[in-house]
Amino acid sequence: MKALTHIYIAFLLPLILTSCVDVDEYDNTASDNMEALWRIMDERYCFFNEKKQRLGVDWDDVHARYAANVDDRMSRTQLFEFLGNMTGELRDGHVNLSASFDIARNWSWKENHAANYSDSLQRRYLGTDYKIASGMYYRILDDNIGYVYIGSFSDEIGDGNIDEVLLHLASCQGLVIDVRNNGGGMLTEAEKLAARFCNQTTLVGYMQHKTGTGHDDFSDKKEQRIAPSAGIRWQKRACVLTNRSVYSAANEFVKYMKCMPLVTVVGDTTGGGSGLPYSAELPNGWSVRLSACPMYDRDGNSTEHGIEPDVNVGITDDDMQKGIDTIIEKARAILGT
């Protein structure tokens, strides 16, 4: 894992040390806060070309429209909504405007899609006697398939915890890792878990960082590699379950796992979110977070708008009424053959 972590450190340092906008150039007026926000995004956001190609977003056009409508008499709540609408045009879950009273966000990347996950259905599979280890909920299903649910990578997952989980499930003929509705967290935790599924250092993708203020100013693509863990490693088949609410670090985890030899990804296309975030401050003290470092799969394709599963399946209405999770059952069928 060290090789991959060092890459992240190397790429984050230029962002930490570089100020994208000198807020002293702007007054604390509605129009100047809008100009500062637009410029911060213009100089540091990493997906302008992709958003223009896929969504038709022209950032210069966005500036023209919002500059023509900003009004220095706006209240703070009016300004917040106005600026949130401006950043929301990018439809990027990593672009957020934060004030003490609210966070502006755009979640259309998941809200406009089927959930393909149900708490009530999952409880039928987990039961009440499941085990918990550092945010991992796990048990052995009645067909001797191991099941692990990980709802977030926001908290540290200890190596000892992973060892205990895999040791408990060692007798199973296959393993289901369910990351549906996992909105992300720390990349280090996603890497740590993926390292349990390879026996040699594996190329899993690439990443870049901004080298200047232009929309096309990027470094060369640098390799992301995952080295096998020194702990217990899974040597049987496994399925990773996905839905549209898999985002950010969880999206990266799915990217990593698609590169592992005995792993099949089952479910719906993930939500994406492949840009490492960067934060800056407006003259009025509000903060903006934005995607600054683009990441790609091992074939060099952007995963910003999601990763397709190996086996595409959703929860059917008929199965829902019967209390059956179609996605879990498909994974069990794959592992049981």
What would you say about this model in short?
The chain is α/β, with parallel strands linked by helices and 337 residues long. It has twelve helices and 13 strands. The protein starts with a helix and ends with a helix.
Helical segment tally? 12
N to C succession of SSEs: HHHHHEEHHEEEHEHEEEHEEEEHH
Q: Structural class, judged by helices and strands?
A: alpha/beta
3D shape: elongated
Main sheet, how many strands, which sense, barrel? 7 strands, mixed
Strand % is: 15-25%
N-to-C terminal Cα separation, in Å?
Answer: 33 Å
Strand order in space, largest sheet: 3-4-5-6-9-10-13
Low-confidence stretches: 1-20
Cα-atom radius of gyration: 22 Å
| Strand element count | 13
What share of residues is helical?
25-40%
Task: Describe the model.
The protein is of the alpha/beta class and 337 residues long. The protein is built from twelve helices and 13 strands. It has helices at 2-17, 30-44, 48-55, 59-67, 76-88, 108-111, 119-126, 159-168, 187-194, 249-257, 317-322, 326-336; strands at 96-99, 102-104, 131-133, 136-140, 145-150, 174-178, 202-207, 222-226, 238-242, 263-267, 275-281, 287-296, 311-312. A seven-stranded mixed sheet has the order 3-4-5-6-9-10-13, sandwiched between helices. Strands 1, 2, 7, 8, 11 and 12 form a six-stranded antiparallel sheet that branches. Strand 11 (275-281) and strand 12 (287-296) form a beta hairpin. The longest helix has 16 residues, at 2-17. It is elongated, with a radius of gyration of 22 Å.
